[in-house]
Amino acid sequence: MKIKGNILFKEEQQFRGWFWWIVILVVTGSIITMVLATLREKEKVGEAWLAVAIAILIELVLLSLMYVVRQETIITTEGVFYRWLPIQRSYWFVSRAEIEKAALRKGPALGYGLRRMPGYGTVHKTGPGKGFQFVLKSGKKIFLGTDKEQPFQQAIDKLMSVTG
């Protein structure tokens, strides 16, 4: 789907916050601890090095994804467009006519990426913090995380006041 309407707000977010570095450090530390414990047993040295190679590969994949995958949100006078790059080429779209209400809300504690969460509906976010909960006239809920609460709120206010 192509972007329609005048752009009121645009944001791209990535998994690069301090939170993700802590996750990667904890995982790496755990793997190193397990490997060092395995290295103490002389007959399992080959297995330990295999575990190190696999751990390094997993960490490289995680770091690559952290720097490549991003959430894009665009609010126009027509509605809200959002997608995950580079995974999605086209946008998901919610027209302003479908939106019953939109409110700033604290995001779910562990709902990162794209997932369904009770009370939030479909969650799209890259880190801890706030976002906007959209409740559609159909009853469906969508939560979009943001790092730019004020500009997002201003765009939503403009979107909801547009007549037509």
Structure write-up:
The chain has helices at 18-39, 45-68, 149-161, and strands spanning 7-14, 70-76, 79-85, 92-95, 99-106, 113-117, 121-125, 130-136, 141-145. It has 164 residues and is α+β, with helices and mostly antiparallel strands. The chain has a single domain (1-164), classed as PH-domain like, CATH 2.30.29.30. Helix 1 (18-39) packs antiparallel against helix 2. The longest helix has 24 residues, at 45-68. The chain starts with 6 loop residues before the first strand and ends with a helix. The model has no long low-confidence stretch (mean pLDDT 87).
For the record, give the distance between the C-alpha atoms at the N and C termini, rounded to a whole number.
21 Å
What is the level 1 CATH name? Mainly Beta
Overall shape: it is elongated
Major sheet details? 5 strands, mixed
**Radius of gyration over C-alpha positions, nearest whole angstrom:** 21 Å
Average predicted confidence as pLDDT: 87
Class per helix and strand makeup? alpha+beta
Point out poorly predicted stretches: none
Query: What topology, given as strand order, has the largest sheet?
Result: 5-8-9-7-6
Number of strands: 9
CATH superfamily: Pleckstrin-homology domain (PH domain)/Phosphotyrosine-binding domain (PTB)
Strand content: 25-35%
Order of helices and strands: EHHEEEEEEEEH
Q: In total, how many domains does the architecture comprise?
A: 1
CATH topology: PH-domain like
Share of helix, binned: 25-40%
Which CATH architecture?
Roll
Number of helices: 3
What's the SSE blueprint?
Blueprint: E1 7-14, H1 18-39, H2 45-68, E2 70-76, E3 79-85, E4 92-95, E5 99-106, E6 113-117, E7 121-125, E8 130-136, E9 141-145, H3 149-161
Parallel strand pairs: 7-9
Antiparallel strand pairs: 1-2, 2-3, 3-4, 5-8, 6-7, 8-9
